[in-house]
Amino acid sequence: MKSKKLLIILFLPWLSFAGGQEIYSENCEKCHGFSQQGSLGLPLYRSTVANHSDGYLKKTIEYGRPGRIMPGFKLSNAQTVKLIRFLRAGVKAPQYSKEPIVGDVEAGKYTYEQYCQRCHGKQLQGGEGTGKNFSWQKDRDVSPPALANQGFLHAAEDQMIKHIIMKGIKDTEMMSFEKEFNFTDQMANDLVVYIRSHQQSSVFSDTPKAVEDEEPLVFVYQSQHDLATTVDKLKDSAAAYNFRVYPSRTLFEGLGGPEGADQKQIVVRFCNFKNMQKFLKLDPRLGVILPCRATVVENNQGEVHIYLENYVHAIKRFNNEQISIDAKDLIDSMKEMVEEAVW
Question: Coiled coil located at which positions (predicted)?
């Protein structure tokens, strides 16, 4: 009987987050890493999670970080509980009062500019990049979070923000401001109130604001030529723009045998190695989404169109101004390349 009780005691920690690892592997591992070490997403170190309340983690999972790489997840309550238990791995959840902190916004702004702006940005937009920094030209290992992000502000309690300011987070670059800079309670309160002033509404909404000049997800060009001629002209144009052209493929080629290929949808593949090297130096993860193809399609009416994906939308998620500028230049040159091919 004693041995059975001992086994139960030994396995209680494992039983408390059983099932959470599977949920993590399915939904989180791709960005946060197999061992929560971080990648596209921020590291989920035990020492980091130890500072976060269950409510904060639950809302972060649900809301994500609008405009950043972190999406919201529609998990059931039971799944969310299991996932949080897995992330905690037996570490007790902190309890924070939900009472809002009172302070001076202007004093908090001054404190922010003096102590926080260098890492978290002038507009509280966070550091460049996302998650772990894999750039060859990096000044820190982890991108500082965006404190003005509405997902963060709707998830975080004032007291949790204050606790992290004062005590810091172990094993990260977030130091204890109480210890390093002799922060007083009032300084921390003012800073929290300033951060909170960026919350736009009392109810969370992840609906993006309409942008009048927002570019489309895909650029579509109608060709004046037949399918084969359009493909040839697109290859010639790509070569003229210093892209190395690779053998074209029909859409779905290799999937389900010859009958699976669509002979009226041709993928023209190309690459500029100089551009590729420039992007990979900024962030090696860009290799999975670098612009490298356009699709030529003949519809049932015999009209031929070229479809060019607008990679700028995907690039924005990397939260790096230089990458966005370079990507815009590259896409503009690709648009010119396609425009020459359709005439």
Answer: none
**Any bridge partners for residue 328, and if so which?**
none
Residue 115 burial (C-beta neighbours within 10 Å; 0-12, 13-18, 19+): middle
What does the H/E/C string look like for 278-324? HHHHHCHHHHHCCCCEEEEEECCCCCEEEEEECCHHHHHCCCCHHHH
Question: CA 296, CA 35: separation in Å to the nearest integer?
Answer: 42
* Strands laid side by side in the 262-271 sheet: 218-222, 304-309, 293-298, 262-271, 244-251
DSSP bridge partners of 142 = 132
Q: Which two tokens stand for residue 307?
A: 């479809």
Sorted by where each starts, the structural domains of the chain and their CATH numbers stand as: 12-196 (1.10.760.10), 218-341 (3.30.310.70)
pLDDT tens, residue by residue, 273-332: 888 888 877 777 776 677 688 999 999 999 999 999 888 877 777 767 778 888 888 888
